Each structure stands twice: as C-alpha cells, then as structure tokens.
Amino acid sequence: MAAEPTTTDTLTPELLTRMNAWWRAANYLSVGQIYLLDNPLLREKLTLDHVKPRLLGHWGTTPGLNFIYVHLNRVIRDTDSKVLFIAGPGHGAPGVVAATYLEGTYSELYPDISRDEEGLRRLFRQFSFPGGIPSHAAPETPGSIHEGGELGYSLSHAYGAVLDNPDLIVACVVGDGEAETGPLATSWHGNKFLNPVGDGAVLPILHLNGYKIANPTVLARISPEELKSLLQGYGYDPIFVEGEDPDPMHHAMAGALDEAFARIAAIQKAAREEGETERPRWPMIVLRSPKGWTGPKTVDGKKTEGFWRSHQVPFSDMSKPEHLTLLEDWMKSYRPEELFDDDGRLRPEIAALAPEGERRMSANPHANGGALRRPLRLPDFTDYALDIPHPGAVEAESTHVMGVFLRDVMKENLASRNFRVFGPDETASNRLQALFEVTDRAWNAQTFSYDDHLALNGRVTEILSEHMCQGWLEGYLLTGRHGLFSCYEAFIHIIDSMFNQHAKWLKTAGEVEWRRPIASLNYLLTSHVWRQDHNGFSHQDPGFIDHVVNKKADIVRVYLPPDANTLLYVTDHCLRSWNRVNVIVAGKQPAPQWLDMDAAIKHCTQGIGLWEWASNDHGGDPDVVLACAGDVPTLETLAATSLLREFFPDLKVRVVNVVDLMTLQPKSEHPHGLSDADFDALFTKDKPVIFAYHGYPWLIHRLAYRRNNHNNMHVRGYVEEGSTTTPFDMVVRNRLDRFHLVADVLDRVPKLAGQVHARQAIRDKLTEHARYIRAHGLDLPEVRDWRWPGGE
Amino acid sequence: MAAEPTTTDTLTPELLTRMNAWWRAANYLSVGQIYLLDNPLLREKLTLDHVKPRLLGHWGTTPGLNFIYVHLNRVIRDTDSKVLFIAGPGHGAPGVVAATYLEGTYSELYPDISRDEEGLRRLFRQFSFPGGIPSHAAPETPGSIHEGGELGYSLSHAYGAVLDNPDLIVACVVGDGEAETGPLATSWHGNKFLNPVGDGAVLPILHLNGYKIANPTVLARISPEELKSLLQGYGYDPIFVEGEDPDPMHHAMAGALDEAFARIAAIQKAAREEGETERPRWPMIVLRSPKGWTGPKTVDGKKTEGFWRSHQVPFSDMSKPEHLTLLEDWMKSYRPEELFDDDGRLRPEIAALAPEGERRMSANPHANGGALRRPLRLPDFTDYALDIPHPGAVEAESTHVMGVFLRDVMKENLASRNFRVFGPDETASNRLQALFEVTDRAWNAQTFSYDDHLALNGRVTEILSEHMCQGWLEGYLLTGRHGLFSCYEAFIHIIDSMFNQHAKWLKTAGEVEWRRPIASLNYLLTSHVWRQDHNGFSHQDPGFIDHVVNKKADIVRVYLPPDANTLLYVTDHCLRSWNRVNVIVAGKQPAPQWLDMDAAIKHCTQGIGLWEWASNDHGGDPDVVLACAGDVPTLETLAATSLLREFFPDLKVRVVNVVDLMTLQPKSEHPHGLSDADFDALFTKDKPVIFAYHGYPWLIHRLAYRRNNHNNMHVRGYVEEGSTTTPFDMVVRNRLDRFHLVADVLDRVPKLAGQVHARQAIRDKLTEHARYIRAHGLDLPEVRDWRWPGGE
C-alpha cells in the first residue's frame, strides 16, 4: 500500500551538486555554532583560542534537519508552495538557525549577524553562549512557532497551525525520541479532524536517527513492516527514504517530496474541486538516516556517527590535541572555501537555492502570527445579560449564559474563520452547547445518519486528549488566530507542562523585537472542584491556579467570576486580550445570580469590591470582613452573612468579593495588584478576615502575605477532603460551608466570645445535615434552595 | 495476519446459558446500583420511593465490562490462570462492583454487604450515595489497582504490574475514549520492554463501544483495516469480537479468549523452555459491542442503546411515570427471579462460574500489593559515605554517589526481583550509571552488537515518556514492589496529574481497612533548575514541589539534601518508607561537599539544623539568619556568609540549612513540622532571615506564614529568569547569588545601614562577572571554584 521512494530525475547532477553544497554549508555552520568562538572560515590554523570553553549543543539530529530543509526548499521553489517548518527535535537549533541564516532571514531580522565573515563569527559565538541564543528552536528563531524544549507537541502544533489556513503546508519533523511521548503518539490522529477543503495540510516527516540521549528509539527498532503498519493504522501513506550515502539519499528525498507534494495537491483538488468527502490517506515521509550524519565516525576509538554518542557534542575535551585536529578535519570536510566567498558570504549559486521572500520557511508570515492577527468581532456582551431584579432572585447556569455569548462570537467570526473552541469531549457537558446552533464538531471519520453535529467544517474541535486540545490551540494562536479551551478543572493539570512552555514562550517572545503579540490562551475551567457530584475525589483538584501563578506576573491572569454577568464581562475581556494566559473558573450548575449587568461591570472593572448590598457596616468600620472568591465560596459566604444577620443583628459584617485573583498581590509584584491603601480600605488593617476561597487556601496567604492585615486573615478552601457526595457535603467536608464560616467568625470576633447558643445551633445544623443526607442522599432543602434574603 | 475470531465448541449450551445468566445478574446489579434505594429484587411494584433521588453513575461501558468479566472467569477456571483485572473505563464501577459481589469477595471484605436481599439493598444504596462508595473503580474496590478517575493509565499500570510477576496475566480493558489520550496511545509500546521469561503477560482488551460523553470515538470510526493495521503496528496480533446478539457474541468471546490464553501460554513456553528470544506478537482482543448494551433501545423516542445517550444515566427524570415503568421493565428483562433465590442469594449453579479463592480476580493477591510487599534488603548507606575532612574540602557529583548506593540496592535485591529504576532515557545523564555495573536497560526490540547495556532482563526501564515511567512504577508499587523514578526536574510536571491521582489513591487506601501499605513512590529530580546549562529557559521550572505540597500532609515529603552524604541518608530513608510520595531534589554536577557522614545523619534526622561550623553567633543571638534549602542555594549562602565574614568580622551570622521542607510547616499541619519553640530557637523571633530556596520563593512564605518571625523572612528563589547561560549567571539573574544575598543582609540588618563601600564592592563584583562571561562564556574563576574557607 505504501509507496516506495522514487528515484526521479528531479535532480540534475548540477542541482544535486548545489543542493549538497547547501547541505554542507548548513552542516558546517551547525558545527561552527557548537564549537567555535572565532576563526569562522578556518582561514587560520585552528587553535584552542578559537574554540568555546564550554561546549553546549546538540549535533545528532542536526544534519538530518539540514538535509530535510534543503530538500523542502527545492520543492517549495518547484511548486511555489507556502510551507511552515516545525522542528520537533528542538535540540536541532544549530541546523534551524543555520538554515535561516543561509536564507538571509536571520540577517534581515538581526542585522548584526551579517552575511559576511564577521557575521559568521557572531553567529557562531552567540550560540549557547551567555547573552546569546538558546540551544533550542525558540521565539528568537525566525520561522519558528515551536519551542524546542519539552518534546511531544510538534504534530499537534502543526495541526493547529493548518486549521483554517487552506494554502498552508506544515512540514513537521518528528524526532524518533519525541515519537515515544504520549502526546505525540496520539497527535497522529490529528488527520481525523482535518478538513481538506478549509484547512491546509500537514506533512509529517518522521526522522529515525535511531537514538535518544543514551538509548535506541522504539520506532527505529521495530521491524519495517510493523512501522509501516503503525503509520498506515494512523491513517497515513508513508514514503520511506533510507540510507546514508548522500547521492542516492538526495535522489530518494527529492522523489519522496515530489510525490508527497503531488499527493497533497491531488487530495486538495479532489476535495475542493471534485467534492470528494472521504477522509484521504495523507502522505508522510519516514527518513532513516544516521545520527550525527557526516560527523566523526569514531571518537577516541568509540563508535560515534550513527550512534547515541553523537547526540550532543560528539567530543568535548578540547585540551586533547587530537580533538582539535578532529574538529578541524571534520569542519574542513565540508570544504568551506567552496561554500563562502572571500567576504564570507554564501556563494550566489548556492544561495539561489533558497525560495524568495515570504516563500522562505524562515520568513513565512504565519510563523509570526501576531502580525496576521485581527481582533475578533465581538457582539456586545451586555446584550446577553441576565436580568437580576435583586441579588439571588434568579438561578442560572453561568457557563450556559457564556455559551450563548460564545455562539454569537462564533457566528460573527464565521466568515473570517479565526475562532475555534477546543475541548476533550466536554463542550456540551460544560453547557456551551449553544455553539452547536451555529457550528458543528470538527470530524473527518466515519459518520452515521444519527450522528450529532459532526461536520468536516465544524469549529468545535474535540478529542479525549487535553494534550491535543492544548497543542491545537497553541498552534492556532501562534499563527494569529483566537480560541478557547474548555476543560474540567481537575484534568487541566494534564497540560501543566505544556502551559509552562507556552507561558515561557510568551515571556521570551515579548522580548523579541520583531514578534507581534498573539491572542491570549483562554481557559474555561468548569465542572470544578465543588461540583464533582458524579465523579468524586479523583476529579477534585483546584491546583491549576497555583501552577499558573508561578509564571511571570505580566503573562498570567486568573478570574473567578461569581455569577453569569460577571462571567460575561470576563469572557469578553479575555477574548480581547493578547500575549496572556487567562484562566477563568466558573460553575456550570444552576446557581443563584447576584449582580445585574451594571453592577457586574463595575465589579469586574475593579476586579475586587465591597458588596454593599450584602454588608451592614454602612461605610463605617466592620467587626469582621467576609471575603470570597469563586462561585461556591461566594454562595456560602452570603449564606453565612445571612445567618450572622439573624444571630447577631448588631454585628457589622462587610462582604468583599474577588473576581481577579491577582488584585490580592502587591502592586509591585503584579500589574493588577491593589495598592496597599486600597487593600487596607477593603480589608481593614486590624479586623478579622474570613476568606472563603475556591482553591487551596494557602494560595491566598501566598498572594497576600505582605499585606498589613495578613495576620488576621483566616482562609478556608479545598483541603483534599471529598468523595462522591452532595454539593453541600463537599463544602462541609472542607469546612468552607456557611456554618463553619459562622463558627470561624465566632472564634475570631472578640465581642462574640462565648456565644454558646449560636455555637450549639451551628453544631445542630451540621448534625441535621449529616443525618439528612445519609437518609435521603440529598442536601437539606434549606441549604439546597438557599436564596439571599436581602432583596426579597 | 490477525487471527479471525473462532466459534469454538468451548461453550456447551448449558454453560452458555449459565454464563448468560451471570451476565444478566451483573447487569441487573449494575442498574440496581445506579437507580435503586430499595426493593432490590423488585418483589414489590417499583415506586418512586424505591428510586434514588439523585442518579449518578455510568451505564454505558458497564454491560461490556460485565460481559468480559464472566468470560475471563470461564477461561480462568479452564486454564487455572492467575489473572488481575484492570478496568480502564473506570466509570464502569457498577459492573466491577457487581462482579466482585457475585464472586463473594465483596461480602468477605465488607460483611455488611451480605449475600442476601438485605445485602443487595445495601449494595445498591451505597453506590454513589453520600457516605457510600464512589462511582469509579477505587481503592475501596476489591481486586483493583487502578483508579477509575482520570483516563489514560490502564495499560501502563498493567505493564507495571506484570513486571517480575511471571505467572501473572493482567487482563486490561482499554476504553475507546481512554484510547484517545496521549499516555494510553504510547503505552501500547509496553510490549517492547516486556521479558516473556521473567515477566508476566498483558492481555489488552480494546473495548469499542463507540462513544464518549457526547461524541463518537476515533478508533471506532476508522476502517477495520486501519484499526487492525494500527494494532499490528503496535506489535499485537488482534482478535476481533464484534456484534450485539448475545449468543454468537458469547461463542466468539469464548473462542477469542481460548485463543489468546493459548497463545500467551505458547509464547511463554517458547521463551522459557525453548530459548526463543525474538519479541513475540502478543495477542489482544478488540471487542466491538453497543454502548449501553441490553439497556433501553430508546428513551423518550431518542436512540439510546448503541449511542452516547447511554454514557451515564440513560434516563433520569423519574417523576415521569413512563420512566419508572421503563426502569422496571428494563430491570425485569434480566429476570432476577431466575438469578437470585428466595433469600436474595445468587443461585448456586450461577455462582459456581466464579473461580475459587485467590483465583477470583477480585481476590488476586497482587491487587492488595501491600500484603505481598517485603522490605528491600538495603546495604548500610554509611558505607558509601564520602570522606569530608572539612566542609567544602571535596567536590563530587551527589547523584553519582547515590548511584553507587543504588547499584548495591539493586544487587542485593536481584534475587528477589522487586526493585526497579524508571526514567525517560536519563539514568546515565542523571549520573546513576553505576547501576549498569549490575543490571541493564530493559529492552525487547531489535539489538545490535554495539548496543549498550540493553537486555531482556534489564531492571532499568527507560522510554522517552514520563507518563509511561510513572504508570509502570505505579503498577509496580501497587502490586507490592519497590522503585525509583529519576527525572529532569522541569519535566516531572508532565505527570502532575498522574501524581495527583496516585496521591489521592494513597490517601483513600489508607482509610480502607483491608488494604496494606505499599512502598512509597520515590522521585529523584535532578538536572534541576539551577543547572540547565545546555537546555535553558524552557527546562527551568522547580514548581513540582509546589504541586506536591498541595496534597495531604501525611502523604507527601520533600527533601533537598545539600550534598552527597545527606542524599545517601535521604535515599535510604525513602526506600524504607511506605504509603508516601517522596520527592528528592539533588544536583548531578560536581559541587562542594559539606557534611561528613556523622554530621549528615545528625542533620537529616532533624530535617533542619543550625550549621555551627558556618555560623559565628556562638550560641548567642545572631544579627541575621541565613537560611538555605537546596544544593545551589546552600553553596551561595555559604559563599555569602564567607563574604560577610570578610566585610564585617563582627557581624553575627547564623546559617540554617533545611533538608526536609516539611519542617517549616506548623506541626499542626504536617507531622514533620517543627514546634513553634524549635522554629523560634532556630530562626529567632525578631532577627532578619534571608532565606535562599531552591524553588519558587513564595512556597517558603506559604509554609512559614504562621511562624512568629515570618514578617522578617526575606526569601530568594527562582523567579522565572533564565536562559542558556552559565551556572553562576543563573543565580545572578534570579538574585539568589552570594552578592545579592549580601546586599539583602545590608538592606535588612540595622547596624549595617549605609555601608557604602561594601555595597559598591558588591556592585563591582557583579559588573566584573557580567563582563567576564560576555568575554569568555564562563563564570569568573573565583565563583566557579569557590570553596568554604572555614576549614582550610
């Protein structure tokens, strides 16, 4: 079934010679970056002074990447294709940087790295050198949307990039080490969600160089039949290119790329012009070439080329004179004098192999997606407001209301095809089903008549893999579009590490002059810790917030809107923002609604506020501050306030609600932080504060520990107690419920010392609740149907 | 290539009838658990009072699981096999619980859930009911080692369980939803690490019921040829069982299991008796059956059986009389009166289908691995001590020393085959290569003559998938063995979510009377944030510690040994412990060594201590406390102390080092927490404390915010600044270096106010450093080769 590699006559001898020269030049520059400080063209005898004192970098994957790159350039020129390059083996930055330098893009963006001998010296010196550039493909690398740090995400980024980019082909090199990761192993299935009409194409190039740091790779050590079967099973039609002798390898690779590009064109023509709707078998290439190809065969008598010893720096103790000779011989084997002219400039006949302008992969506009980004057309979110006659009068599912707004965001931007929603099969479960009034789920596999909103051109993209959802969305955003990832709160930890890498990308990209801001990565976390009625303890974890706030303050935002109207405000705000990661935590279950739209706007604009309607301190000093962040904590806080009003009508209670968690940090640490004066005005300098928080309670201490009144803050939150139980029992088990909050007030307000009757009433209520749920499996009606009594 | 299902004559009509009766009974009990509070045998007309007021649970996957279970029981009896059952679709707990009840195990472990009508009533009532049991397979479930919460880990658990258990077969049901996750997609490759001689067998049963919550599944919607090709590509020989008509399905499944068990036996015989060494193609089964099989075909006119509407509770508004009738009809369709006798006990001819005693999957001893756990034979760790004539006199790679100790742990336990080391291709990189003196890397794929320590019976198990390493280790520990996972610090976030689930398992298992403690899950995190010389910013994240300490205090421990001898102590301690997650963070690079073994033992026994040899407060009050946790912060703190000694000989400096991070928490919050008196004795009540910490600085505030002297604590740590640079530059960028620490002291000790010359000296030094690394790419010799001057 799979096609055999074809040795075409694509490459005339003259062209082959030139392409091989480019490859030699790229390899030469790669070795130079890893090893040399100076003497870039080896015009002097190499000495220890020319060599970097610390050798850091990865040679092993690099010659293979260089080989692929020059061949892609050839086919791009022949077919005038628009290709974006993703280097899964991110350690191959010496190669990626060399290619972008040879194409001229590097010098255009970094004029000090000029196309002459001095530029070469600087190019070499800066690599993995303090103050220079990292040893991975990184935001600094022209043409890259893919951080070469943690492995596993190249293919999902590639599939994200081509969505809604019908003219784009992403050539995605997948390393055989990376291919062992779980996220990569499932991302081959991206082809089941690709629309050959409206989306572009991904050309995976599985690069089997056989080794990781110190081990062979799995895919290089299974039989060729098994490998072919695996890739066909993933839905591809693989073309194999295998060997080590450059000439036949050049012919085979050229033939393979001709064939792959022709098949992509044929598939797209069939789908776009002939109405073909069956899922195509997309081509892919398997390139099996030696690790450290063209490098030293042996070092100190030990096998090096074609072995894991080539993985990083093949030899490093340069105080050995034989190593210096080995390096010089190795670099000279590429014959630099044939490649660069007297000024150190790539010879024009070789340079002519590069495509022109934006056809250069290093200058593909999609790789600087911010420059293509157009703001979303947003409907007026206030049009979706719930009417709230008085606080607590109405019950609603907040995320459902958000879903109606998102539906119209989707509708308004259907024509520009730049907005998608991603999720692991939870869009409907998370109450965003209004989206299906205007679009479908993306799906390109078998369908039946009774299927529900599956379509080739669906814009809700769902697979049961949080990794894939995150990778798709990152690829989509990095190429200039907009999106939202909705997820069960507990399971978002699955992509903790991907979030890390994206947040670090945003931080560094913000420091790269030519990168334009991209749309923010927006999370809706719902089915949250307090409402895991079905799923119990294993689904209870609000710690993603803690993880997020470890990253740079100017990148991250965390919002806990307490009801639907505040959620609308926050959603609109996040969809307008850029270069951020926004985390929105909101409930999907029916819950009392507090603020009308005017109040919601006022509250969210501040991010934190005193709820006067719920307080009775009337602008004076309160006896106690009840603070809350999160929908369930807000409900319990208001219920506690109401109980306190009943027990102790003279007690002055102030209610403070927090939407934007970052307001709690000092202004010096986060741009959204309240000034100390504003913080003191809300929380007082000396009154007890009972803070009911959605997540792990210590986060509030961490954020507020420098505040004046911190020592009086008592925080309740999730303390890892839970099971499959009722909603109210969940808060009781974690002592976040109204009764425990009242008990906390009793413990901390001096003038309430001793209130034996109130304490007993609370204990009785908790006992009654425990008895009731044992008997009925339901919460007590009075806690289940509770409404804020203030306005009634 | 793949075998076709065989309709054997395994099942006589009588046996088929009885097996079908068991299946009906299991399905009946499953529906009963989801829906009923009372009237368990439907001996009265069903009324609303008999039905649970909140319906929580998952029907969809359950009948398929029940079908598989009864067929496994048949083949277990026929072959006397030892089988452990893993239900990847953890939502199928109604089925798993029903099976263990039918086998009698449930009532043996929970006598109140007796084998009679009252027992049935309690069985039904407890399910997903407050105070009862969760709706997933969980620690409470007999025979389970697999939490049915977050999906993706069933196969890696299965492969971990069979390692070194040659007689064990794990029948692992993989749901087609779960199969979309990344971790599951790569874990099929577990067969490349399985030794048919010394390990048992995994029988994957891919259950295609076609739907997730609201979507079809990918693997159910690709062509049968593609699916077969995919599974063959993963190295399996799949047997397909497809249909919905029970009788032929029973025949097909019986034939498939006969064939699978026969092939497993043949493979093991060939390997064990005939010396076959080629990797076998293990059998697996693909079961394609309707979601919600035997449930209502339609509900309210909508397709339900064989569709996603069966996923959870197929119908729930029980106030509709037609729903009550539908439920009664559905349950009666299983003919309970034929299944249970007058007392409500399963009829003996059906009960006789269960295997006996420990052959019951629900009573497999490996599933309560703690009962099988034998302590490791540990060499005396003090024999591996580095000789330290005086602090700082010796430089060594701490993890290398640990590796020598681990080598002998491995050696001492080779015969008992109960210790393994797991890692993502980093064992050698992390300097644990001494292990390869006594064992190899586990490998069962192609090998070449020049390969390095690959062997079928290797006990270092490496794949470039942190998910797989974690899953293997969890499966290995849960079945009663011991192990260690070594990982780059930054990448351990990849398994944040798996750690969560394991920690939650440990918490809950500790509350289940019959579960015995299992060995702790031990992490060595190295290549840590401060020494990412090669890898730069994307590899810099010390936040796993923050993630871990969110879990229950009695489960988690975090150790930051500052040198090799303390690392030896901590390693020994962790390998002896149980029911914990131990996180050890230690460096692999050459670094000064501080404590001889006697001092290390004393220091680690306390977990925190005053280093008198580095302090000059001589038992009196210090002017400042310099605290440190982690090897690099310790080095910088000692260097700062030395500088302070030089600048200000009269300044009284106290150095406190923290090995066990949990000592900082109040005793009320963590069992290792220091008493306030001890904390005050170390940190004083009122003197400035400059705390140099390995990770994100706010964690120290979070742990210590209730301490008396907290307001005087100033913490330095990683603040997300970094690149590919020198080690000292990394600490400078994050202001954790000796010079910034001295500046912090100048800022905070009143009697040093105004020290213009010292400040200028520090600024000059930082400038000199910046110039030097720009020029040389190396740290200044004086910071690179620094030694504690005290003892020289």
From TrEMBL, chains A, B:
**Could you say which residues form the signal peptide?**
none
Cofactor(s) essential for the protein: thiamine diphosphate
Which keywords appear in this protein's UniProt record, sorted alphabetically? Lyase, Thiamine pyrophosphate
Q: What class of enzyme is it?
A: lyase
Enzyme Commission designation: 4.1.2.-
Q: Which residues form the Xylulose 5-phosphate/Fructose 6-phosphate phosphoketolase N-terminal domain?
A: 11-371
Q: Where is the Xylulose 5-phosphate/Fructose 6-phosphate phosphoketolase C-terminal domain?
A: 588-788
* Ranges that cross the membrane: none
Family, according to the entry, reads as follows: Belongs to the XFP family.
What is the name listed in the Swiss-Prot or TrEMBL entry for this protein? Answer: Probable phosphoketolase
